[in-house]
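Sanity check

After download, print the first record. It should look like this:
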Amino acid sequence: MNVKRIFGALLTLLGIGSLIYAAVVFANTSGATRDIKSLIIFGVLGLLFFISGIGLVRTTKDES
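Expected structure tokens:
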């Protein structure tokens, strides 16, 4: 059981969830400043978590 892989998978899932939430906010936006700010925040954080999680899973060697 590799802790880095588990943490990478957790980051990836968190990133996917945040990107999905950003897509929902984008679909329901009315153009208000609050909607745009939350869209940017969740989109950037989701992208950051997703990329770092995928990178962590890919670079961690599987030593069983």
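If your output differs, re-run the checksum step. Summary of this record's structure: Residues 17 and 51 are 13 Å apart (CA to CA).
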